[in-house]
Design a protein that fits this description.
Helix content is about 35%, strand content about 15%. Helix 2 crosses helix 3 and helix 3 crosses helix 4. The chain has an eight-stranded parallel beta sheet with strand order 3-4-5-8-9-10-11-12. A two-stranded antiparallel sheet has the order 1-2. Strands 6-7 form a two-stranded antiparallel ribbon. By secondary structure, the protein is α/β, with parallel strands linked by helices. The protein is globular. Helix 4 links the parallel strand 8 and strand 9.
Amino acid sequence: MERRTIGAGALAVGAVGLGCMPMSWAYSSSRQRGDESLRAVHRALDLGSTLLDTADMYGPFTNELLLGRVLKQRRDDAFVSTKVGLLVGDQHIVANGRPGYVKRACDASLRRLQTDVIDLYQLHRADPEVPVEETWGAMGELVRAGKVRALGLCAVGARGGRRSGARLHDATLRQLKRVQQVFPVSAVQAELSVWSPEALDALLPWCEARGIGFLAAMPLGNGFLTGTLTPGEGFEPDDLRARHPRFTAEMMAANQPIVAGLRRVARRHGEEVTPAQVALAWVLSQSRHVVPVPGTKHYRWATENADAVDVHLTPEDLTALSRLPPAKGSWD
């Protein structure tokens, strides 16, 4: 697989990564199967999707434990990315950015992952009670201690900018400018897809100008862009899409023209090419700094996602995709 680099340290990873969250968090727990998830991870590594993206909160903790079973056998094949900064409680999630906690959390992640170093340690969310510089400084100390190779920041998760008039990623850019003064940022993770292109406005250009890697979260639109979801079919109560404003039956039906456009482009590239692969190829085409991280727990989809690197979009394809209607949701 094509390789791309993350940050000034030139950390090399496969051009398409593997998001591991669905294996144990946020998507239909009744469909989670440990053996199938392990097969998916091994398949991704076999195909060159070396970046495995997880977090201590996924499960919580069980996602890292699952990956540890693979890493115990194949550490040299993988680029391990995990996150810190969020604690899961009973029906709520809170941020914790206290330096002491960050260091203890790192040690715990290392034990669960069965490794002696984390390749990319990401701050999941800044703690509003702790200056982000203090949290980031503690993370920088972990790099100096040899427990972490590089640091990343996850974008502030909010659609509030749509209501206030601010650009979606203004808060993230402010955080980045602050932490960059403390220790170098190697990667930023934020949503980027055909139906959520907002990062192209300012966040991705900011990263490109500084040689910072960009991990594209949700490049398949939480599964919608695969074309495999049926409007009105519904989701299990613990599935994040059950409360997502773009996954009501009405909005899924309204956004079908986006999937239809992906299908039209896919047909130009052969019967075996899927809408999901076109969606990933679009993300890959945005910048050499971008690594899409589609999430899956299935061997089949891990294979399909990795093979998206072989779909090369033409200028005509990109023009057609740029003309797709904007996604609709309850916030619009």
